[in-house]
Amino acid sequence: MKTLRLILGDQLNSKHSWFKDNQENYIYCLFEMRQETDYIKHHIQKVIGFFAAMRAFSTHLKANGCKVEYYTLNAKENTQDLTKNLQQLITKHNITHFEYIHPDEYRLDQQLQTFCKILSIETLSTSAEHFYTKRSDLSSFFEGKKQWLMENFYRDMRKKHNILMVNNQPEGGKWNYDKSNRNKWKGKHNIPEYLKFKNDVSDILDVLDSENVKTIGTFKSDYFEYPITRSQALEQLKYFCEHLLIYFGDYQDAMHTDETYLFHSRLSFAMNCKLISPKDIVTTVLNYWHKHGDDIDISQVEGFIRQIIGWREYMRGMYWATMPEYKTLNHLDNTNPLPDFYWTGNTKMNCLKQSITNSLDNGYAHHIQRLMITGNYALLTQTHPNAIDAWYLGIYVDAIEWVQLPNTRGMSQFADGGKIATKPYVSSGSYISKMSNYCDNCYYNKKEKTGNKACPFNSLYWNFLDDKREKLSGNFRMKMMYSLLNKMNAEDLHNIKLRAQDIIENPENY
Questions:
Q1: List of residues 6+ apart from 114 with CB closer than 8 A
Q2: Taking the model in full, what pTM does it have?
Q3: Number of neighbouring beta carbons within 10 Å of residue 61
Q4: Which residues neighbour 177 within 8 Å (Cβ) at sequence distance 6 or greater?
Q5: What average pLDDT does the segment 469-477 reach?
Q6: Do the beta carbons of residue 266 and residue 316 sit within 8 Å?
Q7: Is a pLDDT exceeding 80 seen at residue 435?
């Protein structure tokens, strides 16, 4: 019996039970394909990172006695299509069984299911053995409930897995320290230099160039600095615990012109490739904290763990509970295009310039930059969800649709009408000033609503509330803002809306 086993680019889990078998009758296959580089335009560092991690994983498998068929992007036998490549190998090796790990993207899941139906050999699909939950756990947990609140799911996860629990009560006496996680970084606590890995990817760059793969963003060296192997991911995790965890929670929402990563872990790419599991991370962080609890407040640890066992698992569950319809939702009927400066960073709005340039240079931005700067502006300018989805999926090295789509279309753009977020995440310039130093040297005045120097976020914010009054005024979390809007002088509102409309119609001027 010869079995072909498929490993996708985000399934690089060396601890999977597949590798505990006797490997004599198994052939593993990994493919670099135009199917994946071209279905959307990706950041060059994202393509490089995935290919580098895949190549390193292939090398690891071979070193451990596995037979591997690896197609580079420019390999002659590479058809650039997943199922055609699979069929080619099935024929070449007289394969009698085909096995694959459940994909985490609906598109690939459908492609493989369709392929297996036409095969004349036995097929088997298996778990990724990565997440805390199964695909259907979230929908089962919320069955019969009107609202699917992440906080309720998060608390259940804490209890179920005995994480930060004492006698079935939250350790420290609180479930959530979110109010302690909103500090502005003013340089009080020094930020250690981030850990850089010198992964030589010059050969991949040559292939992308020779094959004329279209990408976005920049890559200014021959070295990819994020982890591409399990050992590197574990080293990154150790560095996070020893140098960054101590202030992670305090400044997890902060933004600063001089700091790209602040106290964030830079583990999302490795985790989303499955080089390292959420259980690896949570267990390591808890063990470190228990040894150094006198120095590290529980708020730092809880804030980090909430992102992994709460937010991350919740988003995956929402993805599988709502696809494929979720990808079409546009509750607010937004139709505008995304401004061109999202691909260049050329704007006078300093917050957007900083966040977009950072994204283009590093394939990275943390969750508040994504949610409250680039996402906030896209929603306030009433951008079509398809346009912002494509940008987010392409620009970040850690972006895979299962985690990107519900965050973008749901949490960021409120296009799902409140399935994920209980209110739209929109703000004026005051929030941006509160959480960053972006406003300090901006061309615009954060306090003004109208006039040539008025912060565009201010007029856009009130214009958005007025334009979407029919859909949002009944939202209990928006009542205070609509009360303020209703009291606004009619002439002032008119002038605000005129400026907002000019910003929307002429984004290149701002």
A1: 83
A2: 0.95
A3: 21
A4: 249, 298, 299, 302, 303
A5: 93
A6: no
A7: yes
Instruction: Please give the pLDDT value at position 56.
Output: 98
Which of 363, 405, 366, 266 lies closest to 44, judged by CA?
A: 363
For residue 305, give both structure tokens: 């763990």
Q: What is the mean pLDDT of residues 97-124?
A: 97
Calpha distance 71→33 (Å, rounded): 8
For 225, counting Cβ atoms within 10 Å of its Cβ (0-12 exposed, 13-18 middle, 19+ buried), the class is middle
Tell me how far apart the alpha carbons of residues 198 and 196 are, in angstroms, rounded to a whole number: 7
DSSP 89-113: HHHHTT--EEEEEPPSSHHHHHHHH
Q: How far apart are CA 54 and CA 62, in angstroms?
A: 12
| Kind of pairing between the strands at 3-6 and 97-101 | parallel
Residue range 16-36, pLDDT digits in tens: 999 998 999 999 999 999 999
Asked whether the beta carbons of 379 and 424 are under 8 A apart, the reply is: yes
pLDDT band of residue 80 (cuts 50, 70, 90) is very high
Decide: helix, strand or coil at residue 179.
helix
Distance CA 264, CA 249 (A): 9
Q: How far apart are CA 318 and CA 6, in angstroms?
A: 26
Task: Average the pLDDT over 330-359 and give the result.
Answer: 97
Residues in the chain: 510
DSSP 362-385: HS---HHIIIIIIHHHHHHTTB-H
Query: What's the CA gap between 321 and 129, in Å, rounded?
Result: 19
Confidence of residue 294 (pLDDT cuts 50, 70, 90): confident
Those residues with Cβ within 8 angstroms of residue 311's Cβ, 6 or more apart along the chain or in another chain: 150, 154
Helix axes 479-487, 456-467, angle to 10 degrees: 100
Q: Which two tokens stand for residue 99?
A: 């096995």
The letter for the amino acid at 110 is: Q
Tell me which DSSP letter residue 260 carries. S
Angle at 386 between CA 381 and CA 389, to 5 degrees: 90
Average confidence score pLDDT of the chain: 96
The Cα 434–Cα 174 span in angstroms is 25
